[in-house]
Amino acid sequence: MSEPRPWHRLFGVSLVDFFRGAPVLVELEKDLSLKQQLLDVVLIRKGAGLLSRRLPDGFEELAAHNLVSFKSYQEALDGWALNELVGHYVNYRKQASPSMQELLPETDFRLFAVSVRFPQVLARQTTLTPVRPGVYDVRQFTGTIRVVVVHELPQEEHNALLHLFSARTDLVRYGAAHYRPRSEETSTLLLQLFQRYRLEVAIMPDPLQELARETIDELLKELPVKERIKGLSVDDLLAALSPETRAALAQRLRENGAAPKPGGA
C-alpha cells in the first residue's frame, strides 16, 4: 500500500480552491506539537457573514474554527482516529486561545471526520447517529464529531468536490464533471489527483483506471504549455521528441550557431 499522505495533501488543496474568495482561511497539515503530528485541515471563519456558496453535506454549520480529519479509500476511520482528532482539538484550542487561563469557548470549534468509505469498524465501536444521507454525528468525550461518508453522499453539485476523492467510478466521474473551479490552478489540482489514481492502478478497479487516463489526457490539453512542462529537465523534453524532430532541432541550432557541427572541434 502506498503512502496515504499525498491524498491528504490533495484533499486540503481542493478545499483551498473551494473556499477561494470566501471568508474562510484554509490551513493545511498544521503541526500541533514538538513531535510532529499533522492535522489535515483547519477551516477558519473570517467574520460572521453568510457564505456565498453551498457547502458539501455535513459542513453546513461552520464554527469559527473547524478541524478536519480525512481518511482516503485506503484508510479506516475508527475510534482511535477520532481520539486522535480530539487530541488535535485540545492542542489547537490551547494554541488559538489568548492564554491557558482564557480558553476560547467550546462553541468556537467543530470537529469533522471525512471518510471515503463507510467506517465499519467505527460503527461497531460506537453509535453513528444519522443526520442525512452520508452524514452522521458521533458523541466523543464532551462533544460531537461530524462524520461525512463520501460514498453515501448524493450526486449533487455541492458534493462534487468530495466525490473527486471517491473510489467509485460513477462518483469520481460525477465530481470531475460537476466541480466548479474557483482558481486557475484547479486544472493542475485535478491533474495531480488523477495522476494519483493512475499511480495506484494495482488497487483501483479497471473502469476507474481508464477514467484516470482519460481525464489526465483531457486536463493536459487544457493546461498552458508552461504548466505542462513544469518540472521537466531538458533531457526529459528531448526524450519526448521523435528522432526526426530532434534532428531538425539540432540542424536549426547549428544554422543559428548555437550548436557545433558534426565532427567539429
Descriptive report:
This protein is of the alpha/beta class and 265 residues long. It has a domain at 5-170. It is 40% helix and 18% strand. The chain is built from ten helices and seven strands. It has helices spanning 5-18, 79-96, 120-125, 160-163, 169-178, 186-199, 206-222, 225-228, 234-239, 243-255; strands at residues 24-31, 38-45, 65-71, 109-115, 129-132, 135-140, 143-149. It has a seven-stranded mixed beta sheet with strand order 1-2-3-4-7-6-5, with helices on both faces. β3, α2 (79-96) and β4 form a beta-alpha-beta unit. α1 runs antiparallel to α6, α5 runs parallel beside α7 (206-222) and α6 packs antiparallel against α7.
Summary tags:
single chain, 265 residues, alpha/beta, 10 helices, 7 strands, 18% strand
Give the secondary structure arrangement, pairings included.
Elements: H1 5-18, E1 24-31, E2 38-45, E3 65-71, H2 79-96, E4 109-115, H3 120-125, E5 129-132, E6 135-140, E7 143-149, H4 160-163, H5 169-178, H6 186-199, H7 206-222, H8 225-228, H9 234-239, H10 243-255
Parallel strand pairs: 3-4, 4-7
Antiparallel strand pairs: 1-2, 2-3, 5-6, 6-7
In round numbers, the mean pLDDT is: 79
Overall geometry = elongated
User: Which series of helices and strands comes N to C?
Assistant: HEEEHEHEEEHHHHHHH
Radius of gyration: 23 Å
Question: How many strands appear in the DSSP assignment?
Answer: 7
| Biggest sheet statistics | 7 strands, mixed
The share of residues in extended strands comes to 15-25%
Helix percent band: 40-55%
How many DSSP helices? 10
Strands of the biggest beta sheet: in what spatial order?
A: 1-2-3-4-7-6-5
Low-confidence parts lasting 5 or more residues at pLDDT below 50? 201-208
The end-to-end distance, rounded to whole angstroms, is 53 Å
Question: From the helix content, strand content and strand pairing, which structural class follows?
Answer: alpha/beta
